[in-house]
């Protein structure tokens, strides 16, 4: 079989790169574990061989990026396909981090948003995602019409609601937080 380099790169490798589980669909945003420092600093501090946060994560949703073509190769991320972060009150992943990539000062991860295809955005009642929000947070609520909304003051961006959404494409997205300074 004679296959050109171009056909190999664009035919064989494209499906691998197109379906990267660590990135939210249509976005460059990667959901980092709770307490992640700024993205640039995180890439420096999250060591390739370190798996301390992965081992400490009770729901086992923290993974290492295995895409060797990515600048994020072997950095930790939360795989929302596995259910999202439980946002444990004692943050065992943060406590386990010895490199400084995860820090105690701010454990918020992202901000969830309802997208245009959300049934609640179309004035249809859907409560499917409500039970997914961690009990101690309850950022998903119902308004006076019985429509779901996200309390942005309580949302920590754990990704559980995104994982729970049954629509394709997902009707809930995650937006990155603006971390103010490198530590």
List the topology elements.
Elements: H1 5-18, H2 39-45, H3 52-56, E1 62-64, E2 76-78, H4 92-96, E3 110-114, E4 140-142, E5 148-150, H5 160-164, E6 172-176
Antiparallel strand pairs: 1-2, 3-6, 4-5
Describe this structure as you would to a colleague.
There is one protein chain. With 183 residues, the protein is an alpha+beta fold. It has one domain. 20% of the residues lie in helices and 12% in strands. The protein is built from five helices and six strands, in the order H-H-H-E-E-H-E-E-E-H-E. Strands 1-2 form a two-stranded antiparallel ribbon. A two-stranded antiparallel ribbon has the order 3-6. A hairpin with a 5-residue loop joins strand 4 and strand 5. It is elongated, with a radius of gyration of 18 Å. The termini are far apart. 32% of the residues are buried. About 8% of the residues have low confidence.
Order of helices and strands: HHHEEHEEEHE
End-to-end separation in angstroms reads 53 Å
Largest sheet: 2 strands, antiparallel
Beta-strand share of residues:
5-15%
Indicate the structural class: alpha+beta
**How many strand units?**
6
Output the number of helix runs.
5
Domain module count: 1
């Amino acid at each position: 079989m004679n296959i050109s380099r171009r056909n190999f790169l664009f035919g064989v490798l494209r499906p691998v790169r197109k379906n990267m589980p660590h990135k939210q669909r249509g976005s460059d945003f990667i959901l980092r574990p709770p307490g992640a420092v700024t993205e640039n600093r995180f890439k420096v501090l999250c060591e390739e061989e370190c798996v301390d946060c992965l081992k400490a994560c009770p729901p086992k949703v923290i993974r290492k990026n295995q895409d060797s073509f990515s600048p994020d190769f072997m950095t930790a991320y939360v795989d929302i396909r596995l259910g999202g972060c439980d946002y444990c009150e004692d943050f065992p992943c943060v406590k386990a981090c010895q490199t400084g990539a995860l820090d105690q000062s701010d454990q918020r991860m992202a901000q969830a948003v309802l997208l245009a295809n959300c049934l609640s955005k179309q004035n249809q009642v859907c409560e499917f995602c409500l039970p997914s929000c961690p009990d101690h947070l309850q950022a998903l609520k119902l308004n006076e019409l019985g429509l779901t909304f996200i309390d942005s003051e309580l949302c920590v961006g754990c990704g559980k609601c995104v994982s729970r959404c049954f629509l394709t494409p997902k009707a809930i997205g995650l937006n990155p937080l603006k971390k103010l300074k490198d530590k």
